[in-house]
Design a protein that fits this description.
With 469 residues, the chain is an alpha/beta fold. It has 3 domains: 90 residues, no CATH class; 92 residues, no CATH class; 219 residues, Alpha-Beta Complex (Spore Coat Polysaccharide Biosynthesis Protein SpsA, Chain A), CATH 3.90.550. The protein is 31% helix and 19% strand. Helix 2 runs parallel beside helix 4.
């Protein structure tokens, strides 16, 4: 058809295509026929996509059925013909890897290789990523974990990982978990750790799942299929504008005081709600430097099903109801991270909340700008960053920062140059699009030799500048 139209353009009909227009086609059979087409193409550019041979065979078997080694021979024949053609022509070409193009960590790099090759720009790159994105986050694009002896067919896009125990190395998963299939002989003690890794939109499937009674309804919906299998589907992360859901609460025990322990007892007695959970365990030891414990608590939180991470640092004090008030305050729901209102421990206390410079400097430091002339006395004030004496952090924020990496190897909080772990954390939060606020009505104290309070800040300010509203 292409040859006929090239020799007899009058048969094409319609408007003539502009010479600078881009067009192309994708067909695996071109490996065998491209030699016949090449001489009739104007300035052809070839996009060569390499894919794992076994994945191609799995796809053919899924669509056409098994063929006793025929598919392996056919794949080799196609590839040999393609490489022979490429060796005989001098035409621009770019090689892409299918696995990199369909993996969240590498898709953008592959797209830019193609965009640069074709002389296109950022708009085309974004359009390509928009087209790829559904495949990156869809249910059948990466990994389904099999627990126990499971005989279950999956589409070829699924990479099945047989996890016989919960010690399976994270790196062997190569990315996100999109489903867990549980056999009747699976060890239920191994199930919880894998379930916590399932992405929003993913599933857990098995017969008579014990976890129906163990996972909060805010995170999972449960259905029963006609075949008698229970199916749990993970709901999307709670987003800005929604409540905070269930809370996983953790404390970096480093320099706790009597005042803190008294407050902590009140929180455990009356400050939490059904479905909340405590994160500190044997993996979060004390005392350790604050950034280390922050990171371990955040990694531990992502192993649970809780919707919101609540961190309470051990040198603060407040009333028993402050966490409940912060969660129930509708104004706070419009933020992704909300902190309580308090001051630092200096002789002249500074109130929390700051802006960040437009981007980090060449050393990776986020430059802070603190303007005490513009601090609200009430309401929830938008800021770029705060600190973590008491903070509510939506799950999606920590997950977005992680980006599919191994939590054991990632640092949400770290000291960089002159930045504290708080500044680095909020810089990363801003980079993923999180909206941060300080609840100026949720006042807590900072424990030093005395307890520093927000009232101390206002008394100091009013004493220097006269009465203030």
């Amino acid at each position: 058809m292409l040859v006929t139209l090239k020799q007899h353009p009058e048969l094409a009909g319609g408007e003539k295509r502009e010479s600078e227009s881009w067009w192309g086609w994708k067909d695996p059979r071109s490996c065998l026929t491209i030699g016949a087409f090449h001489q009739y193409l104007d300035q052809p550019h070839y996009v060569v996509v390499d894919r794992n041979k076994q994945a191609i065979i799995d796809s053919l078997e899924w669509r056409e059925g098994k063929a006793d080694g025929h598919w392996s021979w056919l794949v080799d024949y196609y590839l040999d013909q393609r490489e022979f053609f490429l060796s005989t022509v001098k035409a621009p070409r770019v090689r892409l890897e299918y696995e990199r193009l369909t993996h969240p960590d590498t898709a953008l790099d592959e797209v830019w290789k193609l965009v640069d090759f074709l002389g296109m720009g950022e708009g085309e790159a974004q359009a390509a990523m928009d087209a790829i994105q559904p495949r990156l986050v869809g249910r059948y694009t990466s990994n389904v974990i099999h627990l126990g002896d499971v005989a279950r067919a999956h589409p070829p896009e699924v990479r099945v990982v047989h996890a016989w125990n919960s010690g399976e190395e994270w790196r062997s998963i190569r990315g996100e978990v999109h489903g867990v299939v549980v056999a009747d002989d699976a060890n239920p003690d191994e199930l919880e750790g894998w379930v916590s890794k399932v992405r929003p939109g993913g599933f857990v499937e098995g017969r008579n799942l014990l976890i129906r009674r163990r996972w909060a309804p805010t995170t999972w919906s449960v259905t029963t299929s006609a075949s008698g299998y229970d199916r749990m589907e993970r709901r999307d992360f709670l987003q800005r504008g929604e409540p905070f859901g269930t809370v996983g609460i953790g404390v970096p025990y480093f320099k706790a005081s009597y005042e803190f322990w008294r407050w902590w007892s009140w929180i455990l007695w009356a400050g939490l709600e059904p479905g909340d959970g405590f994160l500190n365990n044997e993996t979060v030891m004390a005392p350790l430097p604050i950034p280390v414990v922050h990171n371990r608590l955040m990694a531990r939180f992502l192993e649970t099903d809780k919707d919101c991470f609540c961190i309470v640092e051990d040198d603060h004090v407040g009333d028993y109801d402050v966490i409940r008030r912060m969660r129930q305050k509708r104004e706070n729901w419009d933020f992704d991270i909300v902190t309580a209102n308090y001051v630092n421990r200096r002789e002249q206390p500074w109130i929390v909340g700051y802006e960040l410079a437009a981007k980090p400097n060449r050393h990776g430091e986020y430059i802070c700008i603190i303007d005490h002339a513009d601090i609200w006395k009430t309401g929830t004030q938008p800021v770029d960053g705060s600190v973590m004496g008491l903070a509510l952090i939506r799950r999606w924020v920590l997950d977005a920062m992680l980006g599919g990496r191994n939590p054991k190897d990632f640092q949400w909080s770290e000291w960089v140059g002159g930045n504290s772990q708080d500044i680095q954390f909020y810089g990363k939060a801003r980079d993923v699009g999180a909206r941060v606020g300080v609840d100026r009505d949720a006042n807590i104290g900072h424990v030093t030799q005395t307890i520093r309070t927000v009232d101390d800040f206002w008394r100091m300010r009013e004493g220097k500048h006269g009465n203030s509203d």
